[in-house]
């Protein structure tokens, strides 16, 4: 029988704030892209949407704090 173990992490306050900032930035990016997709009325390919990330990064400074792979998965 395989057991699943649960681990509780207690990060320092600075790391906790950084992680919350990353989650909030990802949430805002998701909502922004969702708004743009419903505004356009069509669903483009995933790679086309991911291709707009460099333009968004130059426009939206908070996206530079989050790793690019994380933003691509959002």
Q: H/E order of the elements?
A: HHHH
Q: What's the rounded overall pLDDT mean?
A: 89
| Tally of DSSP β-strands | 0
Number of helices: 4
- In terms of per-residue confidence, which ranges show pLDDT below 50 for 5 or more consecutive residues? none
| Residue fraction in strands | under 5%
Structural category is mainly alpha
Q: In the residues, how many domains can be counted?
A: 1
Largest sheet: none
The shape is extended
- Radius of gyration, in angstroms, nearest whole number: 16 Å
As a percent range, the share of helical residues equals 55-70%
Summarize, please.
With 74 residues, this protein is mainly α. The chain has helices at residues 13-40, 46-51, 53-59, 68-73. It has one domain (13-73).
Structure in words:
With 74 residues, this protein is mostly helical. The chain has one domain (13-73). Helix content is 64%, strand content 0%. The chain contains four helices and no strands.
Topology (SSEs and partners):
Blueprint: H1 13-40, H2 46-51, H3 53-59, H4 68-73
Keywords summarizing the entry:
mainly alpha; 4 helices
